[in-house]
Amino acid sequence: MALFDVCETLISFQTADAYVDYVREHIDDATARFRMKRWEYFLRFLRAVGIIRLCYKFLPNHQIEKRWKLYQLKGMSELYLLKMGQNYVDDVLRYAEIKPVVDRMQQYVLEGYDVLMVSAGYDIYLQFLGGLYGVPVIATELEFVGGICTGSMAGKDCYGEEKVSRIRKYLFTADGHAVYDDDCVSYSDSISDLPMMLQCKRAVTVIKKGRKNWGEQYGFECIWVD
Q: CB under 8 Å, gap of 24 or more: what pairs does 99-105 form?
């Protein structure tokens, strides 16, 4: 099996907040765009005066800014956000590939591996990216009530230890038997994915040139990218 993080591993930037930005920039409803911009400016103010930094100090694992930014999508229909997710992949993500890593993922597919994309990005658009590659996706889910987004996540953010939990649920059958062998490899750019990578027989870090290879201390392999 081959497990791949998405943001800064397969795609060259953090995709979750950028999806919200994409929706705000392309939405036709002037009232909704104004509301989103007002909340975006408020977030920038909180960042500028250090409030967000202070929140991270006391709640380091809660992804505060990401959750607050997501609130901009409150009130939008699931169908509309799915449409925007497809457009986001077509207009942006498919042109932001880290090609050496995408090539490796596609090679694993050709070799018959069970390949899985696991991301803290949102499933509302990553399902379309996975469809482009022919690879299933585990990702952070948005919460909808009656087909309308609440502006919150459905359950936990698919981040850190939560990735391991989601992978285990995905990989095990109803009777508790594993559906894969121990020949498992994982790829990620971030030390936040260490719990996932330590579960695998092989782990590969994806590091931009000029940055420190944090995986070296764990004996991980490395792909250097521009």
A: 100/223, 100/225, 101/4, 101/9, 101/10, 101/187, 101/206, 101/223, 101/225, 102/10, 102/133, 104/187, 104/223, 105/2, 105/4, 105/10, 105/133, 105/135, 105/187
Based on the structure, what is the number of domains in the chain?
A: 1
CA angle 4, 78, 130 (to 5 degrees): 20
Structure confidence by residue, pLDDT tens digits, 97-132: 999 999 999 999 999 999 999 999 999 999 999 999
DSSP letters spanning 128-140: HHHHHHT--EEEE
| Calpha distance 193→188 (Å, rounded) | 7
- List, in order, residues 6 or more apart from 52 with CB less than 8 Å away: 43, 46, 64, 65
2-4: strand order across its sheet: 137-140, 115-122, 2-4, 185-188, 202-208, 221-225
Return the sign of the alpha-carbon dihedral for residues 162, 168, 171, 174.
negative
CATH number at residue 12: 3.40.50.1000
Residues 6+ apart with CB under 8 A from 213: 205, 207, 222
Encoded tokens for 133: 């590659």
> For 150-180, what is each residue's pLDDT tens digit?
999 999 999 999 999 999 888 775 445 444 4
Q: Say if residues 100 and 90 touch (Cβ distance below 8 Å).
A: no
Can you give the pTM of this predicted structure?
0.92
Find the domain containing 117 and state its range.
2-225
